Amino acid sequence: MTIVSETLDFGGEQLVQRIEGSNDLIQKVSNQVYQARTGVSQIPDLRKEVRLLESVMFKWQEANQTSRKLENRMSETVSDLKSVMDRLRQMNNQLRDVLNERHTQAKVVQQPFIDLQNLVDRVSKARSVGWHALDEAQKKLARLEGAIVFISIVAGVCPNWLLLQLDFEDYVARTKALVPDTMSAREDLEKRLADIQANVKDLHNQAKQELVRAYDLSNRTDELQQVLEDLKSSVGGDQFDVLRMRIRCM
Known about the structure:
mainly alpha; Helix Hairpins; 4 helices; 2 domains; rod-shaped; t-SNARE coiled-coil homology domain-containing protein
């Protein structure tokens, strides 16, 4: 009985030790399960992350399309601006050529105009002198008329003072006839100069209009460039960083 009792005591102690070991193992497993559940609870919702990733990718695609459209618009605007600048350069060259040509023409016309003005002055002076001489001659003829008629009657000859008067009046008439032609030539030159000035003014106005359009296109280019910069800054923010990390992890 003693041997059996000792055997039972020894077997009971081993059984107790095994049970305690099992309890320790169960406790460790419970702790591991708790830690696993805690870790699982800390794992983010993958569906939410996927939705966030899809939202960021959609926004990035929209921003990319908008950026391409803006780049195309900016390229078109730059092309238009270059075209306008080329037209401005051509008009500037044309305007310079026209101005040089008009300057040359003005030099050519200037001297005849001066000569014509001098001729007008001389004709005016001659007309004034002629009228004065005619008036004086008429006065003298009036004073001498009686004496000439008397002498002619006494001498029995035909008076020729009327012939002298007619010759002088014809000279004055021919001198006066030159005045309208001279004034007409002067008016024609003034009209030609006015046309030249109007032509130069029209070219100058066209150049100003093209320059205003060039400034407008330049402002539009600056605005598009600013929009691109803002768009790149917006896409390059936190959402773009998250998208870049997600894509890199994939």
